[in-house]
Amino acid sequence: MPTPELLDPDKEHTLVLIKPDAYERGLTGEILRRIEVKGYRLKGLKVKKASRELLTAHYVEHKDQPFFPALLDYMSSGPLVAVVVEGDRVIEGFRTMMGQTNPTLAAPGTIRGDLGRDWKTPAVQNVVHGSDSPTSADREIALWFPELVFKD
Ligand code: IDP
């Protein structure tokens, strides 16, 4: 049995999703490159077609939003890439790199601003997800990478 690879609890981690639109467009390498040249480290990485069950748990805070069914359709429309990223203040840092939710309004230089388009679909298709707080990061990493997380 291989020893499970565990995350260092003294370091900060965030969950990044390279969403199905970005995977389909071949943007995975560009997004991972930006993360690495910033100085963050990749600690877990998988290509996965997410189930609606997993996505419902991931986006539970939005479950009463009118766009929730469309968000699940979008996020389950094809494979995505889930990544655990490690670094000092990486949660806040990746949110800055990502840019704001609507790619039309996201600043140039950000991932969404440079790579995102306004698809005018019921769910905003915006290339990437990044955890928005330490609590969300812990919860999301446990959902997507249970094999990397210590359980007491
Ligand atoms: P964030 O991804 O920028 O943190 P959230 O508000 O957490 O934004 O929303 C989660 C995801 O739901 C967004 O990334 C986007 O794909 C989608 N979304 C957010 N707001 C809307 C909306 O008003 N209409 C359609 N889709 C939305």
TrEMBL record:
Active site annotation, chain numbering: H129
Keyword Transmembrane: no
Assigned protein family: Belongs to the NDK family.
Subunit structure: Homotetramer.
Entries under InterPro entries matching the protein: NDK-like_dom, NDK-like_dom_sf, Nucleoside_diP_kinase, Nucleoside_diP_kinase_AS
Record keywords: ATP-binding, Cytoplasm, Kinase, Magnesium, Metal-binding, Nucleotide metabolism, Nucleotide-binding, Phosphoprotein, Transferase
Enzyme Commission number(s) of this protein: 2.7.4.6
Protein name (Swiss-Prot/TrEMBL): Nucleoside diphosphate kinase
Function: Major role in the synthesis of nucleoside triphosphates other than ATP. The ATP gamma phosphate is transferred to the NDP beta phosphate via a ping-pong mechanism, using a phosphorylated active-site intermediate.
Subcellular location field: Cytoplasm
SUPFAM superfamilies: Nucleoside diphosphate kinase, NDK
Nucleoside diphosphate kinase-like domain: residues covered: 11-152
HAMAP family on file: NDP_kinase (MF_00451)
Residues the record lists as binding ATP: K19, F67, R95, T101, R112, N126
Catalytic activity: a ribonucleoside 5'-diphosphate + ATP = a ribonucleoside 5'-triphosphate + ADP; a 2'-deoxyribonucleoside 5'-diphosphate + ATP = a 2'-deoxyribonucleoside 5'-triphosphate + ADP
Annotated source species: Schaalia naturae
